[in-house]
Structure prediction request, 230 residues.
Amino acid sequence: MTLASILIVDPDIKSRSQIAYGLRELGHDVSETHDAGSALAAVRVKKPDLMVCDCALPDLAGVELLSDVRGSDEFRAMRVLMTSDRSKSDDVVSALKSGADDFVGKPINMQEFLARVDACLRRPANHTESRQVRAGAITVDTVGHRVSVGGNFVSLAPREYRLLLFLLSNQDRVYSRKQLLLHVWDKDSSVGPRTVDVHIRRLRSLLEPFECDGYLQTVRGSGYRFSLTV
Prediction:
């Protein structure tokens, strides 16, 4: 069996402990968390080989977290195994359609579960990382954390940089303020949804001299998206 870094995302502490114990017994490096916000923060820090994620999370549906992961260049290579205690429902179909590598129903049969984990880890992952992300006249250097527009460098605060990079890396997808807080602010409890609005306005003002501010679009009642189609 391939030894790996594995993140377990499950609000049920009993189930999470059972899964973690079985994986650690085999020598895997296991991290645990209970919701999508802390999961995204852990993924950025640890860059696990596999995420074991339950479908029912307290802050965001498991399949929504899965869709975000699969839609992000930063996390796309990570394998994802979904779990649910409603395995006879539409959860299985929804998880697989959203890009899960596998699905295991609860209560967990550890022998079957560990075999599926092994199968996931044996599948090749794409570890290619791009140094630059481009959209129109905007270029983001993901190594140097620098942004240029039309060849001119633009100075951004750290959160502004992360917000622009996230939206630019996921063009034409609409994200709610709640989702953006999870992805960009790591569920920092000291900020609220209106913080997103402030940062969007700041980014637009910086992009306006280059006529790129229209790429940051408000979708009424839903959130924001980055799109080259104005």
